């Protein structure tokens, strides 16, 4: 006759099972009145039906029943295993369903040891699905440990935390954004160096028995293949400095620029490495990688921004009741965390004050503000038009100006070459100041002021690059008197036009770094000294500066857009950008700590992080336009570069596909055909609609749960009012009748305070 599996109550009576107190010891049972409502049955008398309706009572009962069921499952599986041997799968399934560690059960040490021995013996003999689940758990634990280790090794983690404590999370978001760009550019450099630069360097030095092949198209005129870089012999030291700043001279024919990569293929012992295909695929790879990385971080920032904007009261509660990190043991870290929370609360209160001010506007004030904004936006458009025209004229002058050879002309030639970069930098420096003055009169919230100023300045900076590139390409494709008939581009002025574009991007990158460093050293630091040590009234009115987040974000977005555009024409530009941003981090940090004061207009970091990445995404999209145009439509140079044998850089794709086996050609042609593209687009749209509908359903469920929480709060308030009325009525009764009103009501009233219930209703 089979024995029945024991339950928890039969093996371990309830009298012996005591809940653990805060110190880990068993909680001593108190009087029936003290534990009348909230302790399990068997230790105290049965609660009244009226008190059982309380949500808190039901919650406690549900939690206690869950714990008891888990313990019964554990003991039942242990009993079956010890009595009958049981199945291997059964014990592990019971343990897998139990989420509590074994040490938290109120059983003896001998019983815990026996269960542990059974579990260890069972683990050694597990196979199949159970073993796969155990391996999956181990992999997840390893991934979590690795993620935690990487977090502790994060670049500039302590510095960024210190900045957050002194200047708030908004300024901290800028430095985190800068760290992200350092990592992004480093990955871009690794891709370009590993797949393009390193193989060519190996082949040119005949390492691993390698050799490179150079071939030109047979139908190209010999005049198109003539290209001689402006390389001079030994000269004065200042000539090397000028070449280093302009990218010409000795630097033009190096791994830095496109023209040096005039290699069709690299022949190893048993393999042929296609350099043009690798060059083009790496370009696509770093653009797609940048897009995916930015979108991933943008989605995370959008979630935080959406949560913070959805319920402002919840934001207050989270900061006040759950904002402190109780793992902090260092006093300086605690002070930084305290300052950070204080700054975030100031931000919330300031935004709430501005919202209240906007809500109290009259109709006349609203009309006045909108008319003023229209007029100010007209001024903004005028400033943009003047800036674009100046860049256009200086770019044409710089391209048409020939090199002078008279003594002392080196400096003049350098200034003329840098003239477009100088004008762009001046425009980038002046326009944010004008926009900052204008936005003060438009009466926006602090967060929207940042966004509005940022979008205007982004348009200026990115459009300035666009004007420069358009001017360059009009000169490259400028075909008068038939000079483009032979090569398809102006080969007399630009025999290797890709290297010329790379030089322009290189000069913009170098000059931008020089300006950022010079402004911090020669403008911000002297301003602090003058304000602190000079009592001149205008200087005191000027005051100490604050950290202007829009302008600083624009600087690095502008530089990153230049890097994306220039990497195709200057393959090692990501390495320069990595070093540049690494140095800028310390320059900005020192300037912030020494020269700046906290901003009087605080702003939150959640929306700032998302908006910074959105602006960076705009820069990436705009950078893809000139790169894609140069790859797909413009004739490649016939005198330099890996695509000398093709009309355009894109032709390498068709050439590679035609050399594939027939089966792969059919697959590739099928994927790129309309018969595949249209159904694929429809499928993507259906998936998108599904996720939109799913998000809407989740939003409705969240709204229902919020309403349910509000109703629960009202129920509590109703119950406490009834209990208060009952207490009042019982106090007016004679002593003999009021003796039936025991201490349970007093205990319940003490537990459910009216102020607490009102707070629950608000939540």
From TrEMBL:
<feature type="transmembrane region" description="Helical">
    <location>
        <begin position="273"/>
        <end position="295"/>
    </location>
</feature>
<feature type="region of interest" description="Disordered">
    <location>
        <begin position="1"/>
        <end position="42"/>
    </location>
</feature>
<feature type="transmembrane region" description="Helical">
    <location>
        <begin position="240"/>
        <end position="261"/>
    </location>
</feature>
<feature type="transmembrane region" description="Helical">
    <location>
        <begin position="676"/>
        <end position="697"/>
    </location>
</feature>
<keyword id="KW-0812">Transmembrane</keyword>
<keyword id="KW-0472">Membrane</keyword>
<feature type="domain" description="TMC">
    <location>
        <begin position="496"/>
        <end position="606"/>
    </location>
</feature>
<feature type="transmembrane region" description="Helical">
    <location>
        <begin position="608"/>
        <end position="633"/>
    </location>
</feature>
<dbReference type="InterPro" id="IPR038900">
    <property type="entry name" value="TMC"/>
</dbReference>
<protein>
    <recommendedName>
        <fullName>Transmembrane channel-like protein</fullName>
    </recommendedName>
</protein>
<keyword id="KW-1133">Transmembrane helix</keyword>
<feature type="transmembrane region" description="Helical">
    <location>
        <begin position="176"/>
        <end position="202"/>
    </location>
</feature>
<feature type="transmembrane region" description="Helical">
    <location>
        <begin position="458"/>
        <end position="484"/>
    </location>
</feature>
<comment type="similarity">
    <text>Belongs to the TMC family.</text>
</comment>
<dbReference type="GO" id="GO:0005886">
    <property type="term" value="C:plasma membrane"/>
</dbReference>
<dbReference type="Pfam" id="PF07810">
    <property type="entry name" value="TMC"/>
</dbReference>
<dbReference type="InterPro" id="IPR012496">
    <property type="entry name" value="TMC_dom"/>
</dbReference>
<feature type="transmembrane region" description="Helical">
    <location>
        <begin position="370"/>
        <end position="392"/>
    </location>
</feature>
<dbReference type="GO" id="GO:0008381">
    <property type="term" value="F:mechanosensitive monoatomic ion channel activity"/>
</dbReference>
<feature type="transmembrane region" description="Helical">
    <location>
        <begin position="412"/>
        <end position="438"/>
    </location>
</feature>
<feature type="transmembrane region" description="Helical">
    <location>
        <begin position="564"/>
        <end position="587"/>
    </location>
</feature>
